[in-house]
Inverse folding.
């Protein structure tokens, strides 16, 4: 039963000249004074969400983005800061790009945030998808197998850091602790100080492939499925439930998953699509080259695979695929109730702030959503 509503804000500033015919993504170049607008937007958004009863504000970690799309390099730090300015809202990591960190430093930062905010930071992990940042930090990304191998060893260390009073690790990439003398004895293990206050740590990861699903299921991690066509959502939800069962987690369909959707509420579907169109198109100008079009064709083939479409999607595609919900508030309520009927374990809905949509317009949309959609699902 759906009960938690959240927002994903990846850190975009107010972009100029948006849309398919607007400024090409690679030609955007903003000065620092514009790029730091993201923190004021995050602050205003957090305060609105806190007042309106939303569950979690999720941020994305990215680096070097002079283009203005994703301008938050440390989401744990930002979430900790905003927790002091709000009362109840949680702040989620969607996601900490683990290969860009030393795993112990990431575990320590989260543990401090967990303690200082009394559990209002939600941990999330990912492998990264942008070569410019991951490879610049000295980690592999273009070599997918090497990236996965590094990530999985890092995660093994993070689990130990969170859950064991003291530990050691010997792997391909890390030897922990360093084999050195310390105060007259040879170091054999270490204790991470501090460890999180709230254990076990609630952890989220995006689903991007079948191998990802097995890793998430095996390690008790929760999943995010974002801006994905309805047929592929059903396929992923089923695979996740079945994989969890193989590893001893008996879940209902949709349980331990957050489903992310784009949206626009207006007087009609066509009006909503027309208003959302430039922002939807701006998003895919940036993200489509990274492979982030998670739709399928009539034969169930994911876009980009042989025979299926390989183009930048239009808003009509997103609405047809039910990844973007456009229309009246009543139609959005109907969409969510249909989800509840199909996915009986689904509790979490994540709303996407379309890149390029001005802050004032998105906050108005969020206010409408909180007034006209959320009451049908909260406190039932």
């Amino acid at each position: 039963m759906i009960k938690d509503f959240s927002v994903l804000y990846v850190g975009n500033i107010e972009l100029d000249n948006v849309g398919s015919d607007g400024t090409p993504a690679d030609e955007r170049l903003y000065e620092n004074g514009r790029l730091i607008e993201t923190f004021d937007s995050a602050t205003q958004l957090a305060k609105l969400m806190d007042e309106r009863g939303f569950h979690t504000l999720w941020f994305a970690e990215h680096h070097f983005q002079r283009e203005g799309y994703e301008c938050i390099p440390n989401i744990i730090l930002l979430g900790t800061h905003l927790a002091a300015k709000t009362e109840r809202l949680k702040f989620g990591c969607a996601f900490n790009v683990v290969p860009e960190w030393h795993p112990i430093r990431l575990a320590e930062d989260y543990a401090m945030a967990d303690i200082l905010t009394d559990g209002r930071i939600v941990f999330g992990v990912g492998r990264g998808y942008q070569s410019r940042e991951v490879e610049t930090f000295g980690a592999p990304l273009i070599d997918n197998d090497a990236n996965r191998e590094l990530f999985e060893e890092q995660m093994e260390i993070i689990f130990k850091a969170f859950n064991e009073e003291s530990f050691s690790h010997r792997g391909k990439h890390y030897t922990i602790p360093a084999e050195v003398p310390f105060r007259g004895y040879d170091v054999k293990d270490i204790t991470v100080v501090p460890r999180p206050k709230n254990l076990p740590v609630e952890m989220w990861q995006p689903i991007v492939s079948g191998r990802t699903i097995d890793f998430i299921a095996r390690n008790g991690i929760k999943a995010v499925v974002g801006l994905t066509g309805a047929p592929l959502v059903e396929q992923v939800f089923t695979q996740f439930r079945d994989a969890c069962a193989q590893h001893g987690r008996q879940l209902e369909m949709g349980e331990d998953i957050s489903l992310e959707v784009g949206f626009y509420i207006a007087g009609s579907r066509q009006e909503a699509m027309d208003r959302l169109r430039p922002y939807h198109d701006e998003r895919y100008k940036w993200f489509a080259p990274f492979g982030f079009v998670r739709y399928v064709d009539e034969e169930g083939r994911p876009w980009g695979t042989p025979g299926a479409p390989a183009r930048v999607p239009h808003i009509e595609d997103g609405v047809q695929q039910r990844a973007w919900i456009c229309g009246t508030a009543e139609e959005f309520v109907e969409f969510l109730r249909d989800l509840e009927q199909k996915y009986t374990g689904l509790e979490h809905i994540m709303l996407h702030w379309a890149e390029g949509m001005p802050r004032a317009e998105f906050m108005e949309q969020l206010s409408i959503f909180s007034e006209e959609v959320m009451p049908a699902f909260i406190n039932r």
Q: What stands out?
A: The CA atoms of residues 265 and 327 lie 5 Å apart. The chain has a mean pLDDT of 96. The first strand starts at residue 4 and ends at 9. The domain at 1-6+39-51+207-380 is CATH 3.20.20.30 (TIM Barrel).
